[in-house]
Amino acid sequence: MRPKLLYLENVKGLLNHERGATFETILRTLDELGYDVEWQLFNSKEFVAQNRERVFIIGHLRGAGTKKIFPLTREEGSADQKSGRIHLAGTTHAANDLSRFTRERAYYTDGLMRTLTATDYKTPKQIVVGNVNPSGGGMNGQVYDASGLSPTITTNKGEGNKIAIPILTPDKATIRQNGRRMKGNEAPMFTLTTQDRHGIIVAGSIDGSYRSSAAIHSVEGLCPTFTTMSGGVHEPKILVKEATKKGYTAALPGDSINFAYPKSTKRRERVGNQQANTVVTGDQQAVVTDDFQIRKLTPLECWRLQSFPDWAFLAAKFGSREIAEEIIGNRLDHYNCRYDQKTSDSQLYKQAGNSVTVSVIYFIAKHFQIG
Predict the structure, then answer these.
(1) How does pLDDT run across 317-337, given as a tens digit for each residue?
(2) Which stretches of 253-305 are DSSP H helices?
(3) To the nearest 5 percent, what fractions of the chain are helix, strand and coil?
(4) What is the pLDDT of residues 262-288, one digit of tens each?
(5) Which contiguous run of DSSP H or E holds residue 248?
(6) Which residue, among 257, 250, 217, 254, has the nearest Cα to 232 in the 3D structure?
(7) Which of 220-224, 305-309, 319-323, 346-350 has the lowest mean pLDDT?
(8) How big is the chain by its Cα radius of gyration, in Å?
(9) How far is CA 55 from CA 9, 216, 279, 330, in A?
(10) Which of 4, 39, 278, 350 places its Cα 20 to 30 Å from the Cα of 357?
């Protein structure tokens, strides 16, 4: 007895193994058994937060009346595929001329927006409220209103934009006016008197070559305008050794790390950008926490990355679906409960790594049509 459909899955490397000879042998064998074959490459990251490329092969028994289903796209029926047109609602310009004044055009939210151009920064405006340089001019002395646009982000030769915070007598920490010494954001300036001094305050600084990147600004005032020195290579990160031109890849909170063979100089793609790398049969998968700690993924997390429901994992761990349902129903901690674990964590990792992503095979299987 031969089934009407064959459903096979393997790693992406099968397609070019031995320069394609292995895949050709599989296709020839299935053809000799009476099956017409189709295949397609899917990545689990289209369904779950795991980068896992696999080739899926469907064999159709000749004469069984089955229909080919590939190629399939994940976007079928997606809400953002309802409209691919620009829906122009009108214009806010007084002339009411849709052929001109393109920046004043308004669009319906169920369609696409027009292409952004290099002149779009002109609306709204940058609002300059003053300049703190002694000369009264110069880009580095400009102070901007928070309700407008930020100026273009530049290195500013290490200067950085100045932030003006109204403060009474910066040289005297104890003198106050009406119970306050520092004004809040957008509050009016203190009344000028002949005795008080008014100025700009910097709370402190840390070691650094550039004043703008080393300065510490008080939380009572405005955040300084972001520059290239305030982000990019200066933000905290973990450097993971890889066989790249740089020799490493930066990992941030939420990224995954595969720390198998950590001293290897030939491994690449260790870091997953806000998603897990391919789940394997061991416990070498980890994630970067918000406080920059590296934590291993638990067996349950690996099963979830393969789209298994929690009850399936708990049933495998304790050898009973009834126990799994009781743990879920009573919200018990499966690490500290009265039931004995029947399957070791090592085996649970292995089962997750050897499995297929459930949401992917379900997506394919629901397109099967058998006559």
Answers:
(1) 999 999 999 999 999 999 999
(2) 299-305
(3) 25, 20, 55
(4) 778 788 888 888 888 888 888 788 888
(5) strand 248-251
(6) 250
(7) 220-224
(8) 31
(9) 6, 53, 16, 40
(10) 4
